[in-house]
Amino acid sequence: MTSTPITLINMIRQTAWAHSLTATQMAQVEQDAVERFVPSGSYVCRKGDNVECWIGTIDGLLKMSSVSPEGKSITFTGVLTGAWFGEGSLLKSGPRQYDVVALRDTRIAEIPRATFLHLLDNSIGFNRFVMTLLNERLSLFISLVEYDRMLDTNARLARCLAALFNPHLNPGISHQLKISQEEIGYLCGASRQRVNGAIRVLEDAGLVRAEYGAITVLDLDGLRTFQG
């Protein structure tokens, strides 16, 4: 028996920030929000694009990354179902500074810049939600720089996985993450073979359990502090 796909409106109504809006504000969001389907391997948005909307993932998996002029790629994080991103880009002028690519067929919600800024100016609860997102994302990126320079591949993969379990950036995630080892490789910047070896190391340490098409986290704190 398959589950009923979540609708755009239901996804929005289930978000933490929606509960802080007035009925009028919520009605405006529901009127302005649009849904877009992004096939696997396609761009949700590109580095250099004008930033016109705040984006949420209705269903799917995205990779946030950037490529230097020399061709070196760095992946910042994965974006799971229920997550929102792009608030920092909306708050400053200038083009987007990163790419977002769908790692599987994905449905996204887009809320126009004007609606986002109106909520930011008129809803204290929404404002606090956005401040929390910005703070959590800053912490994530600081950690990314640290473990990219100081940890081996097994430990980096452990931290990469642990980062997906941030309840603010990826709300509603359970301890079992439906994700393939190939997708983990895309998010962590490692080959599938390297991911397979690292997952076995993490299993031996009692931190995760690998299943077909999924990873179950057994010790999240241990995953966050794993040194290899």
SSE order and pairing:
Elements: H1 8-13, H2 23-32, E1 34-38, E2 43-45, E3 53-59, E4 61-67, E5 73-80, E6 84-85, H3 87-90, E7 99-102, E8 106-112, H4 113-122, H5 124-150, H6 153-163, E9 176-177, H7 181-188, H8 192-204, E10 208-211, E11 214-217, H9 220-225
Helix pairs in contact: 4-5, 5-6, 6-8, 7-8
Polypeptide structure, described:
The mean pLDDT is 91. Helix 4 crosses helix 5, helix 5 runs antiparallel to helix 6 (153-163) and helix 6 (153-163) crosses helix 8. This protein has 9 helices and 11 strands. The N and C termini lie far apart (41 Å). The protein has 2 domains: 8-147, Sandwich (Jelly Rolls), CATH 2.60.120; 152-225, Arc Repressor Mutant, subunit A, CATH 1.10.10.10. Helices cover 42% and strands 23% of the residues. It is globular and about 55 Å long. Strands 1-8-3-6 form a 4-stranded antiparallel sheet. It is of the alpha+beta class and 228 residues long. The chain has helices spanning 8-13, 23-32, 87-90, 113-122, 124-150, 153-163, 181-188, 192-204, 220-225, and strands spanning 34-38, 43-45, 53-59, 61-67, 73-80, 84-85, 99-102, 106-112, 176-177, 208-211, 214-217. Strand 10 and strand 11 (214-217) form a beta hairpin.
